[in-house]
Amino acid sequence: MFPRANSTGGLIFLTFFALFWTFLTLTFTSMAVRSLVLQWQSTRYPTVEGRIVSSQVKSSQGNASTGSPPPKAGVLFEYEVGQTRYQSRRVRYEWMDPSSSEWSRRAVSAYQQGAACTVYYNPADPAWALLVPGVTGRDVLPLMLLTPFNGAALAMWISLAASALARMRPVAPAGGVKWRQERGRIVVRLSPSSPLAEAFFVFCLGSVLAAFLFFLRVAGFDPSLAAVLVVWGAVALGSVALFALRRNQSRSGANDLIIDRGYATLSLPLTHGRAERDAISFRDVKSVEVREGTKRARKGRIIQSWEVWLRRGGEGEEKLHQFIDKQSATDFAQWLREQINV
Predict the structure, then answer these.
(1) Per the CB 3.0–4.6 Å rule, which of 37, 101, 137, 339 could disulfide with 228?
(2) What does the alpha-carbon distance between residue 96 and residue 178 come to, in Å, rounded to a whole number?
């Protein structure tokens, strides 16, 4: 997820960028959905017999030094509805130019010049007609490819909403970290990340990788609808399984910092490389510190973070949690000092 915008300038910039990004993603998504809906509606169109007027693979003009665009299938057919003759070049509804060398050859081979053909026309507007009705895998693939872009737009708006709510609410105790009283102890949830955010990220990334796999390696740009739905469904199920696994891990208490005031001990969570719990006496804690850190993101980009460390007397130090903003880290460190009297 995107970090919250803490400054007014950052909030304004993220708002405008989110608007721009959302406009682009919704534009392409609406085009893909419209194409899919039209293909689905075309299965209920009435039919009439038509004739292929011309059918040939047209070479596009291009620069020989840089490579020409792929050839296009030029299929022209004519038909008659209510004593009115129409002509159309629409083989099927497409939100983008579907032409490729393989697709063009297949279209021209299927619709030879002079051959009879079945034309599906829109009864509300007979000029809108096509030769191939129905939804196929090629209609769903664009939605898979657009999943991470729509996911990024959603994440930006969630970040903006969280930033706006944080400004309206009073300062959250413990830097916003969730904690509860339980049998005389304070249980602090220090999950490295949100199970829902992890599952959402995997679903977005898995969707686009699966789409590219179909496009480049397996079925070309025209896989069957069943194959695409099975693969996309598998990505969704994998994401749900990851969410369930991470949520159960979080609920198991493995990520919990336990403050036991009765025994004056601090039980560290099984995070940041710790394989087993370590109970530390309050007296052994020398300080709770906030340090600047870094987090590597995609494409090698470095994101600034703030880490809360616990320094122990004579036994080194332990990393407790990582925050994306300094104020939350500072508030949590101060809250923890108050709980253990450091």
Answers:
(1) 137
(2) 47
Q: If phi over 0 gives left and psi between -120 and 50 gives alpha, with beta otherwise, what is residue 272? A: left
Q: Where are the domains of the chain?
A: 8-28+138-169+193-251, 46-132, 256-340
Taking the C-alpha atoms of residue 151 and residue 173, their distance in angstroms, rounded to an integer, is 30
Query: Over the range 193-214, which residues count as b (16 or more CB within 10 Å of their CB) and which as e?
Result: eebeebbbbbbbbbbbebbeeb
Euclidean distance between the first and the last CA atom of the chain, given in angstroms as a whole number: 33
The DSSP symbol for 32 reads H
Task: Report the alpha-carbon distance of residue 107 to residue 8 in Å, rounded.
Answer: 55
How confident is the prediction for the chain on average, in pLDDT? Answer: 84
pLDDT in tens, 221-271: 678 889 899 999 999 999 999 999 988 888 888 889 999 988 899 999 888
Measure the CA–CA gap between 247 and 254, rounded to whole angstroms: 11
Q: Is 2 helix (H, G, I), strand (E, B) or coil?
A: coil
Q: Collapse the DSSP code of 156 into the 3-class scheme (helix H, G, I; strand E, B; otherwise coil) and give the result.
A: helix
d(CA 203, CA 49): 44
Mean of pLDDT values over 290-297: 75
For residue 142, give Cα distances in angstroms to 60, 138, 221, 222. Answer: 24, 7, 10, 11
Range 46-132: architecture per CATH:
Beta Barrel (2.40)
In the structure, what pLDDT confidence band is assigned to residue 211 with cuts at 50, 70 and 90? confident
